[in-house]
Amino acid sequence: MKQVYRFYLCIFIFFSVACSVVSAQEGWMPDAALRTTIREALALPVPVPLTKENILGLNSLDARDKGITDIQGLEFAQNLTNFDFGGNHIQDISPLQHLSKLSGISLFGNQISDLSPLIELRTLTGLNLGLNQIGDISPLAALINLEHLDLCCNQIVDVSPLARLKNLKSLVLAHNQILDFSQLIGLTNLAYLDIRYNSGGDIGTLTELNLTTFLYDDICEIPPLNPPIVERIHNRTYPSIALPGSSLVAENPLRWFPWENPEYYYDVAAKHDITYFAEPEGYAVTWALTHSQPTRGLATQLKGDLSVANAVYEKYSQRNPHFIYLTNGNFNISHLLDFFPPDSDFWLRDADGNILKTLVSWDEYQIDFLNPEVQQLLINRHVGIANCGLFQGIFFDNFMDNNTRGVGRENYKATDEEIIEATTKILRGIRERVRDDFLILVNANRTKLTAYKDWVNGSYMETVRDYPGGYTYEGLIEIEGALLWNEKNLREPRINVLEGHGVFEPFESPNNLRWMRLFTTMSLTHSDGYCIFRVPHEIDGYMQHVHIWYDFWDADLGQSVGEKAQLYENRDGLFIREFTNGWAVYNRSGKTQEIRLPEQVTGVESDLRNTSHTIPDLDGEIYLKRTTDGNDVNGDGIVNILDLVAVANGFGKNAPDVNGDGVVNVLDLVAVANAFGQ
Fold first, then answer.
1. Is pLDDT above 80 for 656?
2. In this predicted model, what pLDDT tens digit does every residue of 188-240 receive, in sequence order?
3. Which of 237, 270, 457, 613 could form a disulfide linkage to 320, CB 3.0–4.6 angstroms apart?
4. 331-335, 356-360, 561-565 — which one is most confidently predicted on average?
5. DSSP secondary-structure letter at 435?
6. Which residues contact 395 (CB under 8 A, 6 or more apart)?
7. Residue 411 in contact with residue 355, Cβ under 8 Å?
8. Rounded-to-integer distance, Cα 394 and Cα 280, Å
């Protein structure tokens, strides 16, 4: 046994020493991942070191996704003709500068910005530099033998260095910041050209090229997509939940909703019926920049690959035909400092010329919408959104008290009347040039949009808590009043959104679940609109209101039957509304309430089935009617002796009260017995 042990110990020591010696001999190539990859390509056994001599036998190398950060030592691979280093972490490519036999290389998905080491590699015919950090491509002008070049997903603005590459047959420039493509007109051998997702919108000269495949962004001017907006609003069922932009999160750990499985994201997102705070890029389109409109804020048309945009649209509409997408408008604020040129008069500035910001913890730069030129620009921009039929409307933030009391109001040196006049001019100007059913939603919080009721379809009521623990009775009454006013007075089709805010606790804490039910049922009893409940959590370093999908919202109430804001038995603060599949009840009466419904129903929260139910104060509940035979007590699909047993076991109790008289007795047995065989 000892001899066997000694044998294996010797083997272990031999390989350990051999590996140490080999590692010391390979110090000229410091990146261990690169050494391992090359050793595998050369099939070198462990005892044999990788040397500057045997690396001369390397002709090609597949080094994709190997975790390589440093390619020092590769300069000795003088016979290397092609390689693929895609998906690594390489920044410095200077070791390549004297590899004169290279003909095809891929450095896709690295961290490269300096291309000067490539300037002498004139034998290159294929080069992939996509998904790097490249802005300056001037060194590529020397690579006159290039036939295939991929520069997608970089920071390129100027493509003039490519004008000398007359042998190019395929060129990919997608996802850059290019405004002018005219320098490419001389590339007469091009057969494949992809310039999608860039800044520029003018491709006129490029149509003269003899291209087999030309991928570019279309100006988005298409009719509204089906189904019609009014049908989406009127045919949906309740509860109807809203999706405020990127508010949807996942838990454990808390993070923005992950995109590892896009189909799952669409499954959850499309449970909602309306989204806002969303940018056009959510539908794969962006603003078309031109020489006269060189920034996002000056652009007045949307563009993109409309086949991709339609595919994204279908992801939502196939799951939920009632889904409405409102893109984010910019009325008085922008989160982007490059929204306008830095010297633009369209920014609101202080006496020293500095661009003014609102006093929130994130960037909100203020737009001078009192400027008549800005007013016309805003009209044109939002008409441009309406002309792109992908979107059903626009959303404007920060509109409290008719836009006279929003965040940053103190920076506008104007009277409330002047602000209302300017706002009216813009909203009226948009409305006069868009289709009748194009939707305008504004964030008016708890206030009433008395000045703009003819132009606006809905108020996003971002209610904000009255105190850290939630809402007061007075606050709830104020919210109800504003919601009812909005439901009665704003332009049709109406799309009011009621948002409640939770407390600083887990999403499904008892308090947050109670407030969620309260706001859901307030929306159901007081409106035909949408609702959402968000909870404060810290993400990305600051506190944000985000939400999850609550099981309570999966209840299918169908559509409304009863009137809004009906009191139950005239009890103050206790509201009830009937729907095709049940009732919603909202209680802010100041005490727990007992109610009796005309038939047995099941509480979504309580899971109790009865005609009589108890609702705590500052809470709400959804009660679902039974969709099967009420005499089928055990729900097995047939009325038989088992149902009689279930009724008999409930004698003297209040469930299962088959005939709805408030007590389980012999009359319920008779009702079940009479249903036998039916």
1. no
2. 999 999 998 887 756 778 888 999 999 988 899 999 999 999 999 999 999 99
3. 270
4. 561-565
5. -
6. 276, 277, 278, 326, 327, 328, 329, 441, 442, 443, 460
7. no
8. 10
Cα gap 559→550, rounded to integer Å: 20
Residues 301 and 376 in one domain: yes
How many Å apart are CA 125 and CA 573, to the nearest integer? 77
User: Quick one: 250 and 210 in the same domain?
Assistant: no
pLDDT digits (tens, 9 = 90+) for 12-26: 444 444 444 445 567
* Domain end call among 534, 550, 566: 550
Element (H, E) at 612: strand 609-615
Q: Which residues contact 365 (CB under 8 A, 6 or more apart)?
A: 333, 334, 335, 336, 337, 339, 347, 355, 356, 357
Q: Provide the CATH number for the domain around residue 677.
A: 1.10.1330.10
Residue 668 CA to residue 41 CA, distance in Å, equals 82
- Same domain for 304 and 247: yes
Q: Is residue 213 part of a domain?
A: yes
Query: What pTM, to 2 d.p., does this model score?
Result: 0.79
Position 425 in a domain? yes
Q: Which long-range contacts (CB under 8 A, 24 or more apart) does 488-493 make?
A: 489/448, 489/453, 490/449, 490/453, 490/456, 490/457, 490/458, 490/459, 491/440, 491/453, 491/454, 491/455, 491/456, 491/457, 492/457, 493/229, 493/230, 493/233, 493/234, 493/437, 493/439, 493/457
- What's CA 295's distance to the chain center, in Å? 23
What is the torsional sign of CA 268, 606, 535, 277? positive
In terms of domains, do 280 and 163 share one? no
Q: Are residues 528 and 662 in the same domain?
A: no
Domain assignment of residue 15, given as a range: 2-219
Q: 25 has which bridge partners?
A: none
The answer on 371 and 257 residing in a single domain is yes
Residue 368 CA to its chain's centroid (Å): 28
Query: Does the residue 236 lie in any domain?
Result: no
Query: What's the structural domain count of the chain?
Result: 3
Domain shared by 543 and 676, yes or no: no
Strand partners, 214: 193
What three-state secondary structure class fits 255? Answer: strand
